[in-house]
Amino acid sequence: MKPLFTIKDMKNALILLFASAVPLVSGCATSHHHAVTWDYKVIEAYDRGGLEQELVRLGKEEWSVASSAAYKWQENETPKLTVILKRSQN
Q1: Do the Cβ atoms of 17 and 57 come closer than 8 Å?
Q2: Mean pLDDT across the stretch 48-63?
């Protein structure tokens, strides 16, 4: 009767097991980083120039743009600009 696994198969399995375990074990030895927590701010404007001035001012306070959109409810309406900003609490 032929064995299910040869010695070569067992050696290869052990090598693979060891190789995959090393990153897991070494990851536990590294320092842990704390999750970043964020403050969020939403600003809305119809005037692009005023919005740019506000973004420059808030950028100096370490706010950064997380998302933005321009939309209008009706065809002839001026688009409303919405910007979501974030700033690290840490």
Answers
A1: no
A2: 92
